[in-house]
Design a protein that fits this description.
The structure holds 2 protein chains of 2 kinds. By secondary structure, chain A is mostly helical. Chain A has helices at 15-22, 28-36, 41-51, 54-62, 74-78, 87-100, 107-119, 127-130, 137-150, 156-168, 176-191, 215-219, 222-233, 250-254, 257-274, 285-293, 295-298, 313-322, 344-348, 353-363, 395-412, 422-435, 444-450, and strands at residues 208-211, 238-239, 278-281, 310-311, 338-340, 416-418, 440-442. In chain A, the strands form 2 sheets. Chain A has a 4-stranded parallel beta sheet. Chain A starts with 14 loop residues before the first helix and ends in a 12-residue tail after the last helix. Chain B has helices at residues 16-29, 63-76, 78-81, 96-107, 131-139, 169-185, 204-222, 241-251, 275-283, and strands at residues 4-8, 32-42, 49-52, 58-60, 87-93, 111-114, 144-146, 160-164, 188-196, 232-239, 256-259, 288-290. The longest helix of chain B is centred in the last third of the chain and has 19 residues, at 204-222. In chain B, strands 1, 2, 3, 4, 5, 6, 7, 8, 9, 10, 11 and 12 form a 12-stranded mixed beta sheet that branches. In chain B, helix 4 runs parallel beside helix 5 (131-139) and helix 8 runs parallel beside helix 9. Chain B is α/β, with parallel strands linked by helices. The chains are: A mainly alpha, B alpha/beta. Chain A binds chain B through residues 22-23, 25-26, 157, 160-161, 171-172, 185, 188-189, 192, 215, 218-222, 250, 384, 387, 389-392, 395, 422-423, 426-427, 430, 433, 446, 449-450, 461-462, and chain B through 42-49, 60, 62-63, 94-95, 98, 101-102, 105, 138-139, 141, 170, 262-264, 266-268, 292-293.
Chain lengths: 462, 297
């Protein structure tokens, strides 16, 4: 069977192909073509032989099918605890089967794997913490996604998302020109209230280089303005690169590993070009995972580190508050029950659990912070991670997945949720839209700006 | 001075008054008018689905949908389109306030015209300035004219302009705009200050003394800026500012009220235009223009 015009093994590399795929409403033609898509079983098996490392082989081999991972998975919990949602079953019945069959699997089976890989796992890696052998199904699902992507079995939106990164070097069609223009626009809009505020582009040797999520310049540029205000008030010598500013990686969700490497190298070359002392990104979990935690390995950096110290936004914020560069007016602290969403990607996967709580200690009146249960590295995925938020085909499953977070939030009794991660923020917004539980949600930046003790003359009152 | 008008509209009846004013101005002053409509608000993180601004339903944007929306707008404004040579429709997706600001900046618009709200919100009546107007008025570089009552849009060009001042920095920009409009269109200009005595019990002598001071201040602040412009009048009344503004506008058959807005609230969701401007927009029987920035005056 031939490869489809839209659904095929080739990544989207041109604007023309991108527009063509985008024009296919709901991916109807795309998914129809997928049903006819040929599985290159030889290629699949040779890819597995070349890329499957001993860890994954061992994991598949030693899994005792004990089921102790079952309760760790929020998708198992919210889906009536059906056996098909047990993490070990999910991976053994997909990747395990492909390996067992030496890649000789059918189109139908590959489509089944796609469904499991993108609608039954968010790669939140929680199961890995509860497996007696430390087997991490999230890591294996990421690997499976790579195999599926290479064969063309990837959800329509993620094929496009990955294509966006390849064509525009951003997850949305934000060009370099659009980005620089947005920086100028936001500086203009903000400088009147904050005299002296600038958004310096391509400044050499700054203390901080800032990177962000393409959704910000595209739809919410005020987020960039808010970052600028906080850097300005903290007196930081900062910059944004004109190229290499986009920190996210939908290609990581898609399993397009070649593109992941390309994305991260693009950011790293900006660091090398501008030579900042440090880099920090926006309040985004997967962007941090892609660029800071996994990126160095994709890029083949021998030390496993980005070219310069690369901290998450919460680390920068905590430091600025700790050192008094940003001062909170105690009278403006949050005085209502408030809870915090721990992002899987930088909390479970990097351990930044205390630093977020340190921020809470500055901005919330003592006695008002309510932990979710469980929390920190044990926290559940928001329900929208791993690309789940954006895939129309699996919207129904995603909405069910949101229920775990909804229950956790309802149990705290809080109406305000702080979510310093784009995907979490979106998932929580969507859960409010879907279930109407009467909550509000916020990134840290606007909250902090609202409670700053601003030095005299720094801000002009309107 | 109104070369480029941006009419931001949802296409709902709440914006018909604004549309009437925009097209009327375009025909009268030879302006270029852009009917700007945000099709949907992006939802669900990275996705191709948006919430339709009129129905609230999830839609996928494609060419077919866009041409349908364009056709709808053309039908809605068919009467106005007739005879408007310099009008075009621009459709975008995104957060409405942000996209209006983006378009105004891109096109270097001289004036944004919009309704006070989409009229969909049952909690606030349709004249109540909605969050989109609030955000646009806060950040726009050009004046933002709002029309929320049908009755407020039945006018035949500007001839009587009322400028209300609280002597703030932003009021300087609003004054410049009022003056240059009055000059260019040969209008009468009333400069007005309301001595705010709402909620206070004051001695009548004190009120009168304060009125004298305010009148002097108004004269000293604005007369030197007017040069040879003579069609002006100064009024200083006491009361609740928005009530007095609306009363004066009615009494003098004002057809444009010009005010500045300013707020110290950072959160645009909570930032109100400023209670006076807000109340005037809600009540006035003529278009109200909010000017805060010096760029387009």
């Amino acid at each position: 069977m031939p490869q489809g015009k839209l659904c095929n093994r080739q990544p989207i590399k041109t604007d023309e192909q991108l527009k063509l795929t985008l024009a296919d409403k709901s991916g109807i033609q795309y998914y129809a073509e997928m049903e006819e898509l040929d599985v290159d079983t030889d290629l699949l098996w040779s890819t597995i032989q070349k890329t499957m490392k001993s860890r994954t082989k061992t994991w598949l081999e030693i899994c005792a099918h004990c089921g102790m991972c079952a309760e760790s998975c929020f998708l198992y919990q919210v889906n009536d605890r059906i056996p098909e949602q047990v993490p070990s079953y999910k991976i053994q019945s997909t990747l395990g089967h492909i390996v067992k069959k030496k890649g000789k699997v059918s189109n139908e089976f590959m489509r089944h794997c796609m469904e499991v890989a993108w609608s039954q796992c968010t790669c939140c890696n929680r199961c890995g913490m509860y497996c007696p052998h430390g087997i991490d199904m999230g890591v294996m699902f990421s690997y499976l996604r790579g195999l599926l992507y290479s064969q063309g079995f990837v959800p329509w939106e993620l094929k496009i998302g990955s294509g966006m990164h390849r064509v525009y070097r951003a997850q949305m069609d934000v060009t370099t020109e659009d980005w620089v223009e947005t920086c100028e626009w936001m500086a203009e809009e903000t400088e009147e209230e904050w005299p002296g505020l600038t958004i310096p582009v391509d400044k050499q040797d700054a203390d901080i280089m800032y990177t962000c999520n393409a959704r910000e310049p595209k739809h919410y540029p005020e987020d960039l303005a808010e970052a600028a205000i906080l850097f300005h008030v903290a007196g930081v010598n900062w910059t944004v690169p004109s190229e290499g500013w986009e920190q996210t990686s939908l290609s990581m969700f898609a399993g397009d590993w070649e593109c992941c490497k390309d994305n991260v190298n693009h950011v790293y070359s900006a660091i090398e070009r501008l030579n900042p002392a440090r880099v920090t990104g926006t309040e985004c979990g997967h962007a941090h995972r892609a660029t800071v935690i996994e990126g160095p390995y994709w890029a083949g950096r021998p030390d496993g580190l980005p070219p310069k110290p690369y901290i998450h936004y919460v680390e920068w914020l905590a430091e600025a508050l700790r050192e008094g560069k940003l001062k909170i007016d105690p009278a403006k602290r949050i005085k209502e029950p408030v809870t915090l969403q721990d992002s899987c990607n930088y909390v479970r996967n990097q351990g930044l659990k205390d630093v977020t709580r340190e921020i809470i200690s500055y901005i919330v009146e003592p006695g008002y912070f309510v932990e979710m249960a469980p929390n920190k590295e044990h926290n559940y995925c928001c329900g929208g991670g791993g690309g789940f938020n954006g895939i129309g085909r699996f919207r129904e499953q995603r909405n069910v997945a949101l229920r775990k977070k909804m229950d956790q939030i309802l149990d705290t009794g809080c109406k305000l949720v702080i979510a310093p991660c784009h995907n979490c923020w979106d998932a929580i917004r969507d859960l409010e839209e879907e279930y109407e539980i009467g909550i509000r949600w916020s990134f840290l930046k606007p909250l902090i700006i609202g409670m700053l003790d601003i030095p005299e003359g720094m801000r002009v009152e309107w | 001075m109104f070369k480029k008008i941006l009419l931001a509209t949802t296409g709902s009846p709440a914006s018909f008054g604004a549309a009437r004013v925009a097209f009327d101005m375009a025909k009268r002053y030879g302006s270029e008018v852009t009917i700007f409509h945000v099709v949907g608000v992006p939802t669900k993180a990275f996705s191709h689905v948006v919430n339709d601004v009129r129905t609230g339903e999830e839609v996928e944007i494609d060419d077919e949908y866009l041409s349908w929306v364009e056709e709808e707008l053309k039908t809605t404004f068919a009467k106005q389109f007739a005879g408007a040579d310099n009008a075009k429709i621009v459709l975008k997706t995104g957060v409405p306030s942000r996209e209006v600001l983006r378009e105004a900046r891109k096109e270097d618009s001289d004036l944004i015209i919009m309704a006070a709200s989409s009229g969909e919100n049952v909690t606030f009546h349709k004249g109540y300035p909605g969050s989109t107007l609030q955000k646009v008025a806060k950040a726009a570089r050009c004046p933002v004219l709002s029309v929320h009552r049908e009755s407020a849009s039945y006018w035949g060009g500007f001839s009587n302009i009322l400028f209300g001042t609280d002597f703030s920095k932003q009021a300087e920009s609003a004054f410049k705009f009022a003056l240059s409009t009055a000059r260019e269109l040969d209008c009468d200009l009333t400069i007005f200050h309301a001595l705010d005595i709402s909620g206070k019990v004051l001695d009548q002598n004190e009120i009168e003394e304060n009125l004298l001071v305010a009148r002097k201040r108004t004269r000293e602040t604005y007369v030197p800026l007017m040069g040879d412009f003579k069609n002006y009048d100064i009024e200083v009344w006491e009361g609740t500012p928005y009530v007095e503004l609306v009363k004066l506008a009615r009494e003098k058959s004002i057809d444009l009220i010009c005010l500045a807005h300013h707020t110290s609230e950072l959160d645009p969701e909570r930032a109100r235009i400023g209670s006076t401007v807000e109340q005037v927009i809600l009540r006035a029987n003529c278009p109200v223009v909010s000017v805060s920035k010096p760029d387009k005056v």
